[in-house]
Amino acid sequence: MLKSFARYAMVALLALTVGLAFAFEPADVWDTTDWPTTIRIGVLPEEDIAVMEERYEPLRDHFESVLGRNVELFFGTDFTAMIEAMRFGNLEVSKFGPFSYILAAERANAEAIVQGAMRRFEPTYQSFVITRDDTGIDSVEDLEGRSFAWVDPASTSGYLFPRAHLIQETGVSNDDLDGWLGTAIYAGGHDAAVRAVINGDVDAASVSDSQIIRMRAAEEAGMDRIIVVTETAPIPRSPEAVRGDLPDSLKLAITHAYLSFNDQAFLEAHNYHQGFIVVSDADYDVIRNTAAALELSPEDLF
Fold first, then answer.
1. What angle (nearest 5°) sits at the alpha carbon of residue 298, between those of residues 296 and 299?
2. End-to-end Cα spacing for the chain
3. DSSP label at 270?
């Protein structure tokens, strides 16, 4: 259940607003009395900021049209920066990775409202453990003693789920896994982890399947040499979350802005072919359970 207003109420109100044309003033639809003059949207650090800024421009413009407010994009240096920005009131809405979202919910009072879905009734993705075709790594067992890149300790597909998967597959304990792998580093981003494998800086890495799909589609150099060693169970897709202390009318308006966004180039670039769909905090309990199994908590990352 959403923390500050019931999911069924949000869905009912959305049914009234989704069909509205954009030729209206926000104040005619929502109570905008306590809305901030600027809405700041946090963007998940996945690629080069210049590339992401251009890619997110249609979303920013759409939000300004729907909300009638100035909209700024905030590009965090990492997941921790995004969470802390919301915690101290410097973000109204942000995309989080599934694991960083549960940290944001606990630390920054974040509330999941929507997620982008490639298939409307399968709103999940996976993490891949990848290697290069000349490393001799053909199975999980072959990773023993090899150099490995995680993405970020708060990354769901770049750390949490692949770590749990490798523990399950190998029987090695969480405390001993990095030593079993050999040298383990944090690449800082999914694209950086893939390039570390391509460039031979590490033998293998854990990354999101969408990063592999995106880089292969772009025909980036070296992607023809990347192979998938293993893949995790399905993971709930990254949510867009609002700050919990925002007015309910603004939360609803932001949700409407996502659900009414239909820029196909943007949606396809993010593998959101079916657009955005409504989610709630409870949809991410599987992430909490996986984190608990690894005995990970916010204190491990902050």
1. 90
2. 26
3. T
